[in-house]
Design goal:
mainly alpha; two-stranded antiparallel sheet; binds zinc ion
Length: 70
């Protein structure tokens, strides 16, 4: 019996799901900061990975700005 895999973040059975094991640890940390229940056994869809990626980039950019302003 196969259980259809769903993205833990949006709850949708998406076609392109990434296993938590394959997500970069920096991304995994960002996911877990918003979704503590998500772990490396969980799946996340590519859409959400992209969202988190963008969020992470904005976050790093902001941190860089803060450092520059000092
Ligand atoms: Zn999703």
């Amino acid at each position: 019996m196969t259980v259809p895999k769903c993205c833990l973040i949006c709850g949708q059975p998406k076609r392109h799901l990434v296993s938590g094991k394959l997500v970069r640890s920096t991304i995994a940390q960002l996911i877990q900061s918003n979704h503590p229940e998500w772990n490396e056994q969980s799946f996340i869809c590519l859409d959400d990975v992209n969202d988190v990626n963008q969020f992470g980039r904005q976050y790093s950019a902001r941190m860089a700005d803060v450092r520059k302003g000092e």
